[in-house]
Design a protein that fits this description.
Layout: H1 26-34, H2 38-55, H3 57-71, H4 75-125, H5 131-134, H6 139-144, H7 148-180, H8 182-200, H9 206-229, H10 239-292, H11 298-316, H12 318-339, E1 362-369, E2 378-385, E3 390-394, H13 401-409, E4 416-421, E5 424-425, H14 431-437, E6 438-441, E7 449-450, H15 451-456, H16 464-473, H17 477-481, E8 490-491, H18 500-512, E9 518-522, H19 530-540, E10 548-552, H20 556-561, E11 564-567
Parallel strand pairs: 3-10, 3-11, 6-9, 9-10
Antiparallel strand pairs: 1-2, 1-4, 4-5, 7-8
Helix pairs in contact: 1-12, 2-4, 2-7, 3-4, 3-11, 4-7, 7-8, 7-11, 7-12, 8-10, 9-10, 9-12, 10-11, 10-12, 16-18
Length: about 575
């Protein structure tokens, strides 16, 4: 079972989803994401220390060479020293290359593991997210945030490779300078203090502005996704104008957020560029004075200038690493919000009494439920269904027929009252066990995959023969077998190339293949062409199908087939509230 990679929720019974501002800080989320990788990150840091030490071979070799020239020696000694220094430098730089290659390799492993951990966590959580967490959110919009893992990967790699090498290389170089002369140690301390001021004082508000920028970008992406999701809607009169107008407004909002964030980053960049100019000039003047006073050798001055020039040049490029760090923080904030979505409870009862061939007994007592605390969609609903009974729920939109089915399926929980299936409250059922005996048919939800995969839908124990029998039961097998690849035909998202009536049959086949004891049809028999309607109603109402049937419909021919009809208008909606 996957676990929360951010470890911010206490379990399935978490409180309703909250805004990202109420959760852990982005910095805390980044720490929690990287914590499992601490061993390999430590390896990368160790390699960075080695790389920083090995890089010192360049200024130290120059120091030795300049000192040899300054003190004077025979030509043969010059050549011998030059050859030895060149070979030694070559060896150290080759070793440096190997260390950096090892850093790249370990960092790549870290990136892969982060991607796999997030994928495993989300694939476990998304099917189990509590429905109320998605009531106010567009599911695909939330999942788009998963692609921020690429930002975390790339930004993290940049920080681990360039950023860590830069910082540790600078530390090693500054330590060497400190050994040259006490004044250079003071220079080191001033350099570090200036850098700290640039990163903290000049970077104030950067994390918040980066998160705002990222959310503005996702708002724009969400709108463009909606335009792509409803192509027919946006071909109507005036639709192109609203698509463009909304996109322009969201683009302006993004540019405003980007501008606020860029101002913070830009002043840090200016501060780092100023550091490059000031540090190089100060070191040259201070070092020259120390050489004149014979407190520093010429070779040490040249080596110090090389070290500081490399350090400040790298620090001047720190701006891109700082922005990558802010991008990583914004990305983990969005990913963490998705991972924090509360999930359904685990565990519960699995009754073993009734026969699998017998319909389920349903008892609803004084059920009250509302999506708004001030308005009950279901108000004191009570009904009882005997095993195998056929009942129609009749009501206009907003009268709670779909909500009753959600509660019977365990998708939502009663806010007041009781709902029992086979004598056990749905809040006490093990949800997996409940959904093995209850099938809900709603809409035409088909995913990209073969017909076989869409009917099985994860129930690999079902054989191809059983799939074909289910398709035959709903009158679809002949049509499917006429396709070139039969039940292995690949479907697009939404079910193409199947027709609407074929998709309705396929979805019903998926529902009945598990031999449910309670079948819920949420207006799926409405608006079908006559032949399909007649065949499917004959099938679901057939006496040899022993399931208990609840169908939401206002069609007279369906109501006449049912044992009885229940008018949902008598139970709600009412503005009486659902609490108290």
């Amino acid at each position: 079972m996957a676990t929360n990679v951010f470890r911010t929720t206490s379990g399935a019974g978490s409180a309703p989803v909250v805004s990202h501002a109420d959760g852990p800080s982005p910095l805390r989320r980044l720490y929690q994401l990287l914590l499992p990788e601490r061993q390999d990150i430590g390896t990368v840091v160790l390699f960075a220390v080695f790389a920083g030490v090995l890089y010192l071979a360049v200024p130290l070799a120059v120091d030795a060479l300049v000192n040899s020239l300054a003190f004077g020696s025979a030509e043969g000694v010059y050549i011998q020293a030059l050859v030895l220094l060149s070979l030694g430098l070559f060896g150290f730089l080759c070793l440096l290359g190997l260390v950096k290659a090892a850093q790249y390799y370990v960092t790549e492993l870290i990136q892969r593991r982060i991607f796999v951990r997030l994928t495993a966590d989300l694939s476990y959580r998304l099917p189990r997210v509590r429905m109320e967490a998605l009531d106010q959110k567009l599911g695909p919009d939330l999942i788009n945030r998963f692609f921020d893992v690429v930002t975390v990967q790339k930004s993290g790699a940049l920080i681990l490779l360039d950023g860590v090498n830069l910082v540790l290389g600078a530390v090693v170089g500054l330590v060497i300078l400190g050994f040259y002369h006490p004044f250079l140690l003071v220079f080191d301390l001033l350099l570090v203090a200036y850098l700290a001021a640039v990163l903290t004082l000049l970077g104030r508000g950067a994390v918040h502005s980066s998160v705002e920028e990222s959310y503005a970008k996702h708002e724009l992406a969400s709108w463009l996704e909606q335009v792509a999701m409803f192509p027919y809607l946006f071909k109507t009169a005036g639709a192109t104008r609203i698509a463009t107008r909304r996109a322009n407004a969201l683009a302006e909002a993004y540019l405003d957020a980007r501008g606020r964030h860029w101002r913070v980053v830009f002043r840090q960049i200016i501060g780092l560029l100023a550091l490059q100019a000031v540090a190089s000039a100060v070191l040259l003047g201070l070092g020259g004075l120390l050489v004149l006073n014979a407190e520093l050798t010429l070779g040490q001055l040249v080596a110090a200038e090389i070290i500081v020039s490399a350090i400040v040049a790298n620090l001047a490029s720190l701006g891109k690493h700082v922005e990558s760090f802010y991008d990583a923080l914004a990305a983990v904030d969005k990913i963490g919000y998705v991972v924090d979505l509360p999930i359904e409870r685990a565990g519960g009862e699995t009754p073993t009494g009734p026969s699998a061939e017998e319909g389920a007994r349903v008892e609803i007592g004084d059920l009250t439920f509302g999506y708004d605390p001030t308005r009950a969609v279901l108000n004191h609903v009570s009904m009882s269904l005997a095993p195998g009974e056929r009942v129609a729920l009749v009501g206009a939109a907003g009268y709670g027929t779909s909500t009753v089915m959600d509660i019977l399926m365990g998708i939502r929980a009663p806010q007041r009252g009781t709902v029992r299936v086979d004598g056990v409250d749905v809040r006490d059922w093990d949800l997996s066990a409940l959904r093995r005996i209850v099938s809900l048919v709603r809409g035409q939800d088909l995913v990209q995959g073969t017909i076989l995969e869409n009917v099985r839908f994860g129930r690999e124990r079902l054989t191809r023969q059983e799939v074909q029998e289910a398709l035959d039961a709903v009158g679809l097998l002949d049509d499917i077998m006429r396709l070139p690849e039969g039940i292995d035909t690949e479907l697009m998202v939404g079910g193409r190339p199947l027709s609407s009536s074929q998709r309705s049959r396929l979805i019903l086949a998926r529902a009945i293949i598990g031999k449910p004891r309670l079948l819920l049809l949420d207006e799926n028999l409405e608006n079908l062409e006559p032949q399909t309607f007649s065949e499917l109603t004959d099938f679901v109402f057939a006496p040899d199908n022993r399931w208990t049937l609840i169908v939401a419909s206002r069609d007279i021919s369906i109501l006449q087939r049912c044992d009885r009809s229940i008018d949902m208008a008598s139970f709600g909606p009412m503005r009486t509230g659902v609490t108290g």
